[in-house]
Each structure stands twice: as C-alpha cells, then as structure tokens.
Amino acid sequence: MKIEDVTIIGAGPAGIATAIQLKRYGLEPLLLEKGHIGGLLVNANLVENYPGFPQGISGMDLVNLFKAQLERAGVTVNFEEVLQLDYDDIFTIETPKRRLYSRIVVIASGTQPREFDFPSEVSDRVFYEVYPIASVEGERIAIIGAGDAAFDYALNLSRKNEIAILNRGEKRRCLPLLWERTKSSPQITYHEKAEISGIEKAGNEIILQCNTPNGKQKFQANYVIFAIGRTAQLDYLSARLRERTSELEEQGLLCLVGDVKNDIYRQTSIAVGDGVHAAMKICAKIEEA
After folding, report:
1. Contact partners, residue 1, CB within 8 Å, separation at least 6
2. Fewest C-beta in 10 Å: which of 27, 103, 199, 218?
C-alpha cells in the first residue's frame, strides 16, 4: 500500500502555493482538483492587490501564470474529486478513481455557493460563477447580489453584454471603487430593493419576478448569476474526521488553507501566504520525524 507524505485537496491559489513550496523543499505532494485550476480566480475581472502587477491583472491571466509556475516546478495536477476524507491513524482519501492514503493532508478546497431555490427547468440558464458563460456576447444577464463578487462579475461580463444587478436590500457591500466603476458603465444597471419572488423560463429567456417599492416588476434575462454568498467546501469530511479536526491541526497532520478557512477574508494574497506557511510547517514536521 502506497502512502503519500502530503496530499493537497484543491488547486486554487492556496493549494498551488502549498504544492510549489513543498517542491522547493524536495517533497512530492499529491495535488487533487475536482474541477479547474485557479479556484474563484477564473471569475475575477481584475486583481489589483496582488503584488507584482502595478496595473492589475485579470483573474484568468493570473491563473495562466499559476499554471505555468506549476509546470515549471514539476507539479502534476490530478483531476479527481474527493468524495470522502477520513482519518484512522492515517488519512484515507476516496475519489471516483481510487482510494489513496496520506500521512498529512492539506485542505485547500475553497468555498461553495449559497444556493437559491429555483425551478429545475431554468437550471441551464442559472449559474453561481462567471466562467461557464464567460464567452457569451450580446446577451442580457441578471446578477443577484450586493457584494464584491456581484459587482466584479458585472464588470467582467459587461464588456460584451448588458447587465442588471439586483439587490434585494438597499445596502451595497462592495468596495467603493467597484461601485464607481459600475456607475460609469453604460452596460450595467443597478436596482436595489428588488427581491425575487418568482423565476420562470420563456423560450431562451428567464423572467425574474421581483417585489420592489413600486410594486411587482419583471426583469428579463438570458442568463442569471447568483452571487449571494459562499460557505466552506468541507462536505466530503467524514463524521469521524470532523470530530478530530482541531486535534489533527494541532498535531500538524491536517492543514486548512485559503478560502476554506478565511471566511470574508477571501483574497488571493492571503491564500497564497497560507499555502506557503503550511508548506513550511509541514517540512519542519517531516524533518523532525
């Protein structure tokens, strides 16, 4: 039975940084990713607070640089979804392809969206991220939310589409600079106190029925994106492991890095720092063993 020294779950910024730093120490981490490299960065319109890019850099451009650095470091990304992670003297990792064993595990699986209850017949037109429809042009897109993600998604898609941001309240929770850019875009309209009361499909369009201060109002869109919050992606942890998470973290056998633990502090630079920090602690633990 082969036992990995270190397995990393998730190839977003935190997982990537962990893997690269471990390789610098001469270790060979196993990196697992269920979807695509880069995590939520693939949705980002412009990353402006990551050092080294004074003019900012698009999320996809930064992801491509991360991919190139992984390749240069000799890190292979294994595209396998982790179905269950368990621990009993050693970690057991179940994927659709195989069962894996590891002495140390780094959880860098990021977040999952808070979902909205909508009819199944509209599911092919409703999303929680930008990247599935990043290439569409000339469409009307409704974005539901009032935080940084909603406004950043709007700016990203507004280059080639018409965008309506629907905020169920009246308070915006985005950075001031995102609001100013949104106001300056002729392709984006912003509607507050627009709470969705119904969703239905009409041909290739979605009809959003909203309660507003002026009564019921309908918004038509070809696509809808819900940006109404995210929660840690930890549903694959076994019940036994959940009870021992804190204990295993204290022992240095389990590390949570990046968005999966950072709540509202979901920033690429923080995630990368988490990854490097975790890798350094792991190396020190292995050297002590």
Report:
1. 101
2. 218
Q: What is the pLDDT of residues 26-62, one digit of tens each?
A: 999 999 999 999 999 999 999 999 999 999 999 999 9
**CB of 77 within 8 A of CB of 11?**
yes
Q: 3-class SS at 211?
A: strand
Fold of the 4-112+230-288 domain: FAD/NAD(P)-binding domain (3.50.50)
3-state secondary structure at position 136: coil
Residue ranges of the chain that CATH labels 3.50.50.60: 4-112+230-288, 115-226
pLDDT in tens, 117-147: 999 999 999 999 999 999 999 999 999 999 9
* Helix (H/G/I), strand (E/B), else coil: 272: helix
Residue 187 CA to residue 147 CA, distance in Å, equals 19
Task: Enter the CATH code of domain 115-226.
Answer: 3.50.50.60
Three-class SS state of 220: strand
Average pLDDT over residues 237-258: 97
At residue 27's C-alpha, the angle toward residues 26 and 33, to 5°, is 135
Give the residue among 125, 124, 128, 126 at the shortest CA–CA distance from 114.
128
